[in-house]
Amino acid sequence: MRYLLLLWGDADAEAALPPEKRRAIVEQHMAFSGRLREAGAMVLGEPVGPALMDGPFAETKEQVGGFYVIECGGADEAREWARQVPTSPRLAVELREIPAA
Hints:
four-stranded antiparallel sheet
């Protein structure tokens, strides 16, 4: 089964971190991606850049910062991977099953 791990965070709070802390977050995501690949669970993972749109949009500090698409044996395994996503300011990981086509 495939699952989407959608990463919501506060881009302003992350930008306010010292450069070495931001770099550490990136390195932790690289290591997490490596563990997913080693386990055969990685399908796709990407950071998401700022939205290029001109309203209307929700007034919120949380923004999608990136995502992972993983393949695993079920919801319990997907939840375990979601728990291992590296933390960043105000991070929330949204877990969604991707229905088979």
